Amino acid sequence: MNYHNILVSTEPPIAIVTLNRPKVLNALNSELMAELVEALEALDQDQAIHCLVLTGNEKAFAAGADIGEMAEAGAVEMMQRNNIARWDRIMRVSKPMIAAVSGYALGGGCELALLCDLILASETARFGQPEINIGVIPGAGGTQRLARTLGKYKTMELVLTGRTMTAQEAESVGLVNRVVPVELYLEEAKKLALEISQRSPLALKLAKEAVLKAFETSLHDGLDFERKCFYLLFGSEDQKEGMKAFLEKRKAVFKGK
Ligand code: DAK
Question: In angstroms, rounded to a whole number, what is the distance separating the alpha carbons of residues 22 and 50?
Fold first, then answer.
């Protein structure tokens, strides 16, 4: 595919999708979002790819939705654009997604990182929901996903003041998995993606689904879902291979079957 706002590179078993509107700090306009959804869904279908890395550039992961695109819109128009459908499709990507964040991850940029399953940050990363400064509030999940990650008080502070968090602060409150020097953030994210990719793709998919279920359901129903996923994996060749390899003291070779 020919994309204008993103770059896609595949290095099986991983793929790297790079937001690429550097002049506007990767502001997420609708063309970029459409391309992003298309690329992520295609990679989700690609059996050779087991884990995805989503990144920007050193200065910005993304500084939010494109303000110019929505400044003059009315409420009904915003509703009819139904841009949130694209975000919902990203939420349904079944393979693990790692956000490799450097520089600004603000507004929709922070919300996009929150849609990923792991967040690896460079020491220059800045996370925040500054929508309050432009007369609105987060609209792509920020109030809900941050509250579930940081709890009420930190989330209120970020959403009500619009202040940004450093990478170190984000790590200390559990918003990022780890902070690495800026020159290493993409390499480290790729390494992590490769490490994850060594596991059974079937188990990865169900593991992701089960963890995400914890944010949407009661403990009882979540445990029930987890158990059914666990049993289901005993119908896979990968489970037989994984356990056999352990007993034979060798490395498992998973086929995603
Ligand atoms: N939109 C459009 N352009 C942006 C932008 C943005 N979000 N952020 C930066 N830019 C552009 C600037 O206008 C500037 O363009 P030129 O003037 O050079 O043409 C260029 O990027 C460089 O920016 P600055 O000159 O401002 O760079 P600085 O280093 O001085 O400042 C900054 C960096 C990140 C602090 C600053 O650019 C800034 O405050 N940016 C805006 C951050 C922001 O408010 N983000 C939240 C936007 S609202 C939804 C989906 C998503 C959303 C909501 C609903 N649904 C589907 C329902 C999300 C909403 C948002 O994200």
Answer: 28
